[in-house]
Write a structure and sequence with these properties.
By secondary structure, the chain is of the alpha/beta class. It has one domain: Maf protein (Alpha-Beta Complex), CATH 3.90.950. It contains six helices and five strands, in the order αβαβαααβββα. β4 (117-124) and β5 form a beta hairpin.
Length: 167
Amino acid sequence: MSRPAAETAADVVALAIDRGVTVATAESLTAGLVAAILANTPGASGMLQGGVVAYQNSVKAAVLGVPEALLAEAGSVDAEVARAMAEGARKACGADVGVSTTGVAGPDAHDGKDVGTVFIAVASGQGSEAFGYAFSGGRAEIREQAAAAALESVLGLLRSTELPQVK
């Protein structure tokens, strides 16, 4: 991502507040980084509902409602798992929009997926969409790139016409 994540987060917070939209996170790979970047932004309390760090599949299933059969079949690093996580974040936190991250930061491959494989999803009342990425770098760089991409995905959704104008 070419823009600093903090700049994107500022746009997300401003636009979400302007539209009266709340956001929740479900994070595996980023372990709360997306929520932390949002929370570092002044005004975030007006739109950030909460977040779930779901590092283990048992938490993805129990807290976010990701189907155990999907996790068993696809593994945790999967577009459909990301979609289910984003939808689960919306429900668990009572938010208008959910965003999720799942992937492989390394140092080793996971669930048959290479280091740098990342899936991010956004969900709203109108449905969900997942995006796949192949990031490079070390563990910290992959996590930072994933967080930035997640924020860009939320911003894209907020800018779309899918969400109703609440105000």
